[in-house]
Amino acid sequence: MTSVEKRIGTAANFVDERLGAAGWVKKSLNKVFPDHWSFMLGEVCMYSFIILLLSGTFLTFWFDPSQRDVIYNGAYEPLKGLKMSAAYASTLDISFEVRGGLLMRQIHHWAANIFMAAIVAHLLRVFFTGAFRKPREFNWILGILLLTLGLVEGLFGYSLPDDLLSGTGLRITSAIIQAVPVVGTYITFFLFGGAFPGVGFIPRIFTLHILIIPGIFLAVITIHVMLVWYQKHTQFPGVGRTETNVVGHPILPVYMAKAGGFFFVVFGVTAFISAVASINPIWLYGPYTPGQISAGSQPDWYMGWLDGLVRMAPPLETHAFGHTISWNILIPAIIVPGIIFTSMALYPFIESWITGDKREHHLLDRPRNVPNRTALGVMSITFVLVALINGGNDILATNFDLSINQIMWFSRIGIFVLPPLAFIITKRLCLSLQRADRELLLHGTETGRLLRLPHGEFVEVHAPISPEKAFILQSHEQLVPLEIEDVDGRGVRRPGALKNKLQRRLSKAHAVSVPKVSEQELKEIEHH
Amino acid sequence: MSNELTPIDSSVVPQHAPRATDTNPVSEKRAEQQVAILFTLSGIGSVLLIYSYIFVAKDVFIFIPVMGNQNAQQLGIGLGMAMSLFFIGIAAIHWAKTLMPDKEIVNHRHEFRSSDEDRAELVHTVKEGVKGVQLGRRKLIKRSLGAAVGLFALPPVLLLRDLGPLPKKQLETTNWKTGTRLLTDPGNRPILASDLEVGAVVQVLPAVEHEDERPLSDIAKDPVLLIRLRPEDFQLTPEKLAMTHEGIIAFSKICSHMGCAVALYEQQTKHLLCPCHQSTFDVTRGAKVIFGPAARPLPQLDITVDSQGYLVARAPFNEPVGPSFWERNSQ
Known about the structure:
The structure holds two protein chains of two kinds.
Chain A (H helix, E strand, L loop, with lengths): L2 H17 L2 H8 L2 E2 L6 H21 L8 E3 L11 E3 H11 L4 H28 L8 H23 L4 H15 L5 H9 L8 H31 L13 E6 H26 L5 H4 L15 H12 L4 E4 L2 E4 H29 L15 H21 L1 H8 L3 H40 L1 E8 L5 E6 L3 H7 L23 H14 L8 H9 L1
Antiparallel strand pairs in A: 1-4, 2-3, 5-6, 7-8
Helix pairs in contact in A: 3-5, 3-10, 4-5, 5-6, 5-10, 6-9, 6-13, 7-8, 12-13, 12-14, 14-16
Chain B lengths: L19 H4 L1 H31 L5 E4 L3 E4 H27 L6 E4 L7 H18 L5 H20 L23 E3 L16 E6 L9 H4 L4 E5 L9 H5 L5 E5 L11 E3 L4 E3 L6 E3 L5 E4 L8 E2 L1 E3 L5 E3 L18
Antiparallel strand pairs in B: 1-2, 4-5, 5-6, 6-7, 7-12, 8-9, 9-10, 10-11, 13-14
Helix pairs in contact in B: 2-3
């Protein structure tokens, strides 16, 4: 035994005698993680969260979250002598007087954007591959919670510097809260500590931004990852991979080295972007005053689609009994997002109700093999993209010399027309891809070699595909519609006929797919 | 199942082809050197960071093609940090991929559902536990518990009461009163009607006691835009026309949609545009909404001149300015 081994042994013995951890740790170190590039998206989320914690902590050492007035007398000449909030002044100081401060601000802001982008990408991966199915519905819901928290945390974060742009964002936030019937006005006054912009909002969202929300994040991310650990990761279908096993590299050493290395890569890339690409140059906007505004006021992209919905809303208000209800704000800013996020969270249960499938799933779907779900996903993306385009309609109009009114009308109509169109096209595409898979299985790949037969006919030689590939192409399950009878065995109408009808219809639409290659068909081909 | 194929035994894990580093000692040696070089690059990055932090002055700018003038210190610290982090990561991954064992292993899954005995036992334990609480039998405890918990929920809400003042009439009122002078913003100078030429646009605030110390909450509702048109350009109702003065019309600058400053005025079309959500108001028709999500015109301020010829408000706004709220009487 070498001396190093001896020392490790002593330490391990010390811990194990007190915690009895050897059995569990041994098992954990042999834990298997399947490999696929798309599994790294969730890792990017977690790593950028750590980057956010580190860079954010750095920023709190200098940031002064106060709306108290100060006269700026710092290093940035153009704003010298101006009255501004301490929050804005201290953000200027971080940018111009703390060495590496601007870099940290940019790392923090870029990491926030990367965090949100990675969450969206990770969510799409989980959705399109059906990783949310039983037993992983809890984790899906936690993921939706993290996405929603991320939106709020991001909004609060870029609102803190109290510059002209972020103040405009807060003005809109206050108008949304104020639009809530009955209690809206009171809640706004309480949150802001008076009439907008109040005296209390920045210090209050600061506490939420650096303590409460990150705390919730930390707790939810921990549960999210622990559930992945406990339930074991899903895997793509392949030879040797079944619903009852998980194939991949063990934690120690390969996965640990790769994942640990990947953290440094994500951090390094974020630092590089932040070193060379400016983001949110608040000194150009000036301090916030509600009487002014800069043209082209834009939120960060993950809020942009909500702003786009607000922009395209029809000018609807109800005036009755001495009260006002602003549908032009409530519908796009509260009701529609509420419906979207709720149905997103419930989707695993909706799909399982439609398919009647209550089994556990650990093998991932190839998106083409579940055309309805894939089409639904593309439909949702289209909806958000149209809204996002409208959120930047002023920028688009100035940059491409378009009319803002035309873009707005395009979005107003497009938001209803384009998502269903995307659904239909995607579903057709999925079925075509299924057909192509079927062809590949039956006839192999085209080799480009032409053969002339003795009687003069030309044929192209097809080469059979590898057994591994063939396995993947037909490893999915044939989707079958639910069979629900309206009447039971004795001819009596069953209760909930309308519900049954809906379920049957949806199930039928969900199960549309190309028939899988049967054994008989394959045998026939072999005899050719 | 007849139409399910199993051409390959799916319980078998396919054998991995060995990597070059597994078979060729030269490749192995080379991979090891590559990892070492990558770690060294990381070290160079750290040195660059330290050098930039200590030895590069804060106000040195260097020109870099495409990027333009860059602050040398921030750039040096940033690039140094990027290098030192990135190459540690790449080195570890390269090490794992080329030199660490690449054999995949198999773990087995178990169904998550507990056994029937466990479930039955749990139900039994819970039932016993609940029985021990005896809530069903002890009505008095049950009722007083309900009352206590209900009352207990109130204080946390109540304690938040002092977060802010009650709205009272703050959303309905502004600092514009009968006879309040219109002062330029910025500058705080009173305005003669003759100061404004046709086509001029001026932002004004009401004259108050301490003009240099207006709270932001006043600036969030007081700003008014003065626009002078030719009187024949107006298409207004007689009441609204009476609120103008010699072709000068005054509107609240706070958008009736979400309260942004309606700052963009188009001379040609005489439209006011809010940059937040593109609500467009036609000045000639009393700031009527002609496009966008705003549902109400911008409130118009009744203006006239005082004895010295300075523009003043003839009356306060006759409706609340800014975004809608529940208590707003918009009829």
